[in-house]
Amino acid sequence: MNMLAPATVLLLLSPAPPAAEIADCRVVAGWEQDGPARVFTPENLFEYVDGEANAYLIYDFIRLQNVTCKSGTQSMVVDVSEMANADEAYGLFSSRQDPTQPVAKIGMGGQILPQRAIFCKGKYYVELASNSDTRALQAFAAELEKRISGRSEPPRELGWFPPERLRSIKMVPESVLGLSLLKRGYVAQYESGRAFVVEEESGETATAVMNELRKRMAKTTPANVADEAFLAKDRYLGELCFFRKGRYLGGLVNMSQRDEAARLALSLAQRLP
Q1: Mean pLDDT, rounded, for 169-186
Q2: Is residue 9 one of the residues assigned to a domain?
Q3: CATH label of the domain that carries residue 52
Q4: Which domain-ending residue is among 126, 147, 168?
Q5: Do 40 and 106 have their domain in common?
Q6: CA–CA distance, 16 with 208 (Å, rounded to integer)
Q7: Is residue 204 one of the residues assigned to a domain?
Q8: Residue 252, domain extent
Q9: Distance between CA atoms of 255 and 128, rounded to whole angstroms?
Q10: Is the pLDDT of residue 1 over 60?
Q11: For residues 236 and 218, what is the distance between their CA atoms, to the nearest angstrom?
Q12: Residue 11 belongs to a domain
């Protein structure tokens, strides 16, 4: 039997680097740290992102390492947030991305915008803010991404949504579509309407949720989608189609036409496992 070299064993057993090791100004030549580094936890995060702390906390936030970097008159604020796992890191990224701008291949996903860059990889979400041009942002994002171990592939759920006229996809950690029955899932924004997928623990729990959703609607019409489905019109969700496929719940909402909701729901259901 082949034996792993000791260095390889240590590499495999080593945990992901702490945020303090990732947030290093010297990753780009000519840049130095300006002032002390700061660490924020769930208990004091509001001191740094007052009014937005809960937007981090709902994604199982652990800590944020903050440093300011300088190069001449240029400055760069580096925030490295550590989350509980890669899914939560992607969730935070998806909630803070600009849906009107393309997603770049940086880790699981990223964006380079004027004076701002964000990306996620492994269990980390990184945000950069600068008074410099995008070249500095690109350089920092590229070098910091190299320091992070962990998953680089986007969540598999992104591939479930039909790509035609798709604008953005967000991971929603609670109350999907504003419905407490739908505890956690993904929501895709299209040019017209929104699609969602929620994975339940089992087919039985999914069926129970489906029954409760049906009761919530004033009037429903059966639809021929997956294991069971219904069409309805809701005050806030507009024309909609909800369906169940095994332990998955999904559907289309805010559609202008009921037939279109059913057609797109069928396309979505066919892409689920």
Answers
A1: 97
A2: no
A3: 3.40.1000
A4: 147
A5: yes
A6: 39
A7: yes
A8: 156-271
A9: 37
A10: no
A11: 13
A12: no
- Count the residues in the chain: 273
Tokens standing for 138? 């690109």
Copy the structure tokens of residue 158.
């992104």
For residue range 131-156, list pLDDT tens digits in order: 988 999 999 999 999 999 999 999 99
Nearest-angstrom CA–CA distance, 14 and 105: 26
Query: If phi over 0 gives left and psi between -120 and 50 gives alpha, with beta otherwise, what is residue 123?
Result: alpha
Contact criterion met (CB below 8 Å) for 117 and 111: yes
Amino acid 174 reads E
Specify whether the CB–CB gap between 183 and 174 falls below 8 A: yes
59-116 confidence digits (pLDDT tens): 999 999 999 999 999 999 999 999 999 999 999 999 999 999 999 999 999 999 999 9
What letter does residue 18 receive in the DSSP assignment?
P
Judgement on whether residues 24 and 142 belong to the same structural domain of the protein: yes
DSSP H helix total and E strand total for the chain:
7, 14
75 inside domain? yes
Instruction: Name the domain boundary from 116, 147, 178.
Output: 147
Pair 140, 230 in one domain = no
- Residue 40's identity, in one-letter code, is F
Q: How many C-beta neighbours within 10 Å does residue 243 have?
A: 25
Question: Domain count of the chain?
Answer: 2
Count Cβ atoms below 10 Å from residue 236 Cβ, excluding itself.
10
pTM (predicted TM-score): 0.88
